């Protein structure tokens, strides 16, 4: 019987799952903590751009749908923090690392939501990109992360359709509503392409993460998949993807497109995006305001433990 690192490598080679109590290289554990924490942080910071529109949604039905979606994002954050904790870290420490700017969250959530059409664009493009990126993570070599992704992806696909439906309604409305949808696509297209990370030539972690079966496809492969999926949907909506270099290549069956400006991605990731400061300050305040809830829950759990004893 194989033990320790031999057993780890044999499981990876056989495309099996690594579970929390299995032996794993320290680098594998660290890479997973980094990626899962960044993913969890993205989910909870990602509540802000849309949460900002709950009170302004144009009808009771739209308000109820948006509230449910934002709650789903909180739930995804919780599954992901729980998955990270199986690797021996504590979620309170991960939150401290987010709040002190030492751990990242997705660049996309540092852009403002200026109009109601932006809520459609987030569902359609941002959740669309999240699905393309996360469906392969359902086959990630780390069991708890892969299993968390199954439910997350089901919910994301519902989110994507609700975003598309918001834009579909606007695109079939007045000229002003259609212009609002076009403006949202113009602003969200490039940041959505950046969500997939730097180009493969500049991606520091991809090679090792793919060898370990954490990532199943490279950043550029997934970006291409997203473009191929999304461009025909823009056609259905009747709005224009803001890329003069966009064309369909019959031979490969793929769209050729212009790469986003990656200097903008690096700049936003460094903290210089339009909303970085606001997002982090809001998160820290929400955490501080919620201290009494954590204290009350801990006191209640302690009281119950004493009673049980
Ligand atoms: N933003 O070597 P790579 C959602 C960093 S979806 C910020 O290519 P890796 C759902 C990267 O961390 C969004 N940082 O890295 C939702 C690394 O920095 P480090 C979240 C980025 O890990 C929808 C450095 O650049 N999804 O929340 C970004 O192999 C609507 C080098 O990059 C996930 O996190 C970026 N865009 O590949 C919620 C999915 N890209 O750590 C609310 C899981 C790269 O060395 C509303 N994560 N960096 O300091 C992944 O698949 C991967 O981590 C990638 C990056 C693909 C994001």
UniProtKB/TrEMBL annotation:
GO terms for molecular function: phenylacetyl-CoA 1,2-epoxidase activity. SUPFAM superfamilies: Ferritin-like. GO terms for biological process: phenylacetate catabolic process. InterPro entries: Aromatic_CoA_ox/epox, Ferritin-like, Ferritin-like_SF, PaaA, PaaA_PaaC. GO terms for cellular component: cytosol. This is 1,2-phenylacetyl-CoA epoxidase subunit A. It comes from Kribbella capetownensis.
């Amino acid at each position: 019987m194989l033990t320790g690192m031999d057993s780890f490598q044999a499981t990876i080679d056989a495309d099996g799952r690594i579970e929390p109590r299995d032996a794993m290289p320290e680098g594998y554990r660290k890479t997973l903590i980094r990626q899962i924490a960044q993913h969890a942080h993205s989910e909870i910071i990602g509540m802000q751009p849309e949460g900002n529109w709950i009170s302004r949604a144009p009808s009771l039905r739209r308000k109820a749908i948006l509230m449910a979606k934002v709650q789903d994002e909180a739930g995804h954050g919780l599954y992901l923090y729980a998955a990270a904790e199986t690797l021996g870290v504590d979620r309170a420490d991960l939150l401290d690392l987010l709040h002190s700017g030492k751990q990242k969250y997705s660049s996309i959530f540092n852009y403002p939501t200026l109009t109601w059409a932006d809520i459609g664009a987030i569902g359609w493009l941002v959740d669309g990109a999240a699905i393309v990126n996360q469906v392969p993570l359902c086959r990630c070599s780390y069991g708890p992360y892969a299993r968390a992704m199954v439910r997350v992806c089901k919910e994301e696909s519902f989110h994507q359709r609700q975003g598309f439906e918001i834009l579909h309604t606007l695109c079939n409305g007045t000229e002003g509503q259609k212009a609002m949808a076009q403006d949202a696509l113009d602003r969200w297209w490039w940041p959505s392409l950046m969500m997939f990370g730097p180009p493969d030539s500049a991606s520091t972690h991809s090679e090792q993460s793919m060898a370990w079966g954490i990532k199943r496809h490279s950043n550029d492969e997934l970006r291409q998949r997203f473009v191929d999926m999304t461009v025909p949907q823009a056609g259905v909506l009747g709005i224009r993807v803001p890329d003069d270099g966009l064309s369909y290549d019959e031979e490969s069956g793929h769209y050729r497109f212009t790469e986003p400006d990656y200097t903008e991605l690096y700049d936003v990731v460094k903290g210089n995006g339009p909303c970085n400061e606001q997002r982090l300050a809001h998160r820290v305040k929400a955490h501080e305001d919620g201290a009494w809830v954590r204290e009350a829950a801990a006191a209640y759990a302690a009281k119950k433990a004493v009673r049980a004893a």
